[in-house]
Amino acid sequence: MSVSTAPPSEQRAPAAPEVSRRREANRGRAIAQIAAPVVVFLLVLLVWLFISYVLLEPRRRFLMPPPQDVVVVGLLNPANSSEILAALWSTTQVAIVGLAVAIVIGTIIPILMIQAQWIEWSIYPWAVVLQTIPILAIVPLIGFWFQFGFSSRVLVCVLISLFPIITNTLFGLKSSDQSHHDLFTLQRATRLQRLLKLQLPGALPAIVSGWRIAAGLSVVGAIVGDFFFRQGDPGIGRLIDDYRARLQAEQLFAAVALSSILGLLVFWGFGFLGHVLVGSWHESQRPSE
Amino acid sequence: MPESVTSCKACTWALRTKRPPRPDLYPVGVLERPAVQTTSVDHYGLLAPRADVALAFEHVSKTFPDGTQALDDVSLDVAAGEMVAIVGPSGCGKSTLLRLASRLSSPSAGEIRVAQGNLGYVFQDPTLLPWRTVQSNVELLAELAGVPKAERARLAADAIALTGLVGFENHRPRALSGGMRMRVSLARSLTMRPRIFLFDEPFGALDEITRERLNGELLGLFEREQFAGLFVTHSVSEAAFLASRVVVMSPRPGSIVAEVAIPFAYPRSPELRFDPDFAATAGQISARLRANLT
Question: Where are the domains of chain A?
């Protein structure tokens, strides 16, 4: 027959000069991608300095202490920085445990939902309700039931971060192609084979993006928990509230900045995790052209 | 597929059928596929061991739940080792015929009988799993059937060699052209050594040159593997080039309006397309097709 073993010419192999040109263009884009937000940051610093020194008279300067004071007092002073970091660590633990629990529950529930339409119909409205309850309104109730310690803070975290995991995972699991399903049906695949070899791997990009949203929310949930539940190690939320009460503006700003960095790290961490898990096959992981 | 797996699954199937298997006429363990959906009437029969028929439609009609009648009283036999092409206008139920044969869907009336052996199905799209490499895409069906790792790697290597994919084993589908993806899809079906191959316009989305090349390669596979084939296409010249018999269908509800025998012996060379007799045969099919469009 006419099938040849030599690689047919239909393959797409970009020529070498094209590759190096593209690499150069990519490097230029990477530099611009870093430079642009840095410029914005410098602009923000300028506005900040302007507010601190020009708009505010010295006795009201505590409302917006200049950035260098925040760095010197809040971050470089070992007593203050160790207090902030300890609180941040306590909050991080709550966020991590809460997120882990949310991921486990938020993956199991959609897997159950796709097994039968009636399961989806019975559970999904309650997942929506979970999302629409004002969490702040039931936080006191949670404390009332589960005390005001670690487990209640974790529970708040789970409640806040569960919904995006459920919806993204469900969407991902349900978006497998019909033709792929036909293929599996033809080969008489079991439900488990279908789940493990078609639905879950296909859903992975959506699942990971759900985790990413949830990761940010879990940090928010942990800080909200801190405000309400004041037992156990103080979290960053409680510390921020204390600094506010004591008018320690430099420490307050440092604590807020560090908790933002925590959120950022979690977001990046999950972005990286997504890249590792999804690898290079999915469109969303492709460098834009 | 290992023999034990085949016979075991076939036993389950035999137990499920309403009609008791009669060993004299219907050998137990010959039918590969259990019903995908249970219907009140069983439209599927086992083909009596007549060596010459691989697939038989008998007075098959199909009406969808929304009331659309897709097929009306279609009867068609495909002999073992025969390639039959079906041409017809869009929406005439050509693809439905393949879905019925593979039990992805069941007929509203009539009976479909399928001979023993595996059934291969090549879809319109390559339907590759984008997260799998070429190698593991080709292994998929054997993997689902529970074939041990070493054995399915061997099956895949054979199929990859047959379809000219050597050197591309570790590529992901995204890195391949449309023609190469279709080759992977073919290779995946080939691993199961099907005795009956259903093709649902597999090359419809490809450019002319790639399409003709893959036609040639498919003929090569057909001549070598001797499977029975049912090839659905829009292209009259593709149908005439591949098949020994071309069935012309009418617009919806689809029924068979003509059968044209293609009088050229296999193996066929690509030059056949430029043969005046070939053009005359293709013209004859086109005429039948047009006659039923008005």
Answer: 16-64, 65-285
Contact between A187 and B221 using a beta-carbon 8 Å cutoff: no
pLDDT digit string, tens, across residues B159-213: 999 888 999 999 999 989 999 999 999 999 999 889 899 999 999 888 988 898 8
Q: What dotted CATH number matches A65-285?
A: 1.10.3720.10
Burial letters for A166-176: b for 16+ Cβ neighbours within 10 Å, e otherwise? bbbbbebbeeb
Q: What is the band of A6 on the pLDDT scale with cuts at 50, 70, 90? A: very low
Question: Of the candidates B34, B174, B219, which has its C-beta nearest A281's C-beta?
Answer: B174
What percent of chain A lies above the pLDDT cut of 90? 34
Residue of B95, B100, B102, B144 to mutate, testing the A interface (most A Cβ within 10 Å of its Cβ): B144
Going through chain A in order, the beta strands assigned E by DSSP cover none
Cβ contact, residue pair A1, B34, below 8 Å: no
Least confident of A134-143, A217-226, B156-165: A134-143
Residue A131 burial (C-beta neighbours within 10 Å; 0-12, 13-18, 19+): middle
Q: Nearest CB to B104: which of A186, A278, A281?
A: A186
Judge whether B204 is closer than 8 Å to chain A, CB to CB. Answer: no
% of chain A at pLDDT higher than 70? 90
The top-scoring range by mean pLDDT among A190-204, B100-114, B213-227 is: A190-204
A164 Cβ contact list (under 8 Å, min separation 6):
A210, A213, A214, A217
Structure tokens at B99: 């879905």
Query: For residue A188, which residues of chain B lie inside 8 Å, CB to CB?
Result: 9, 33-34, 144
Residue of B nearest to A4 (CA): B164
Model confidence, pTM: 0.77
Say whether B144 and A187 touch across the interface (CB within 8 A).
yes
Q: Which of A1, A5, A9 to mutate to test the interface with B (most CBs of B within 10 A)?
A: A1
CATH hierarchy code of domain B39-117+195-291 = 3.40.50.300
> Where along chain B do its domains lie?
39-117+195-291
Reference B189, options B98, B262, B75; nearest CA is B98
Tell me the DSSP string of B6-22: HHHHHHHHHHH-SSPP-
Q: Which residues contact A10 (CB under 8 A, 6 or more apart)?
A: B176, B177, B179, B180, B210
Which residues from A are below 8 Å from B130, CB to CB?
281-282
Tell me the sheet residues that pair with B86: B232, B247
pLDDT in tens, B138-153: 999 999 999 999 999 9
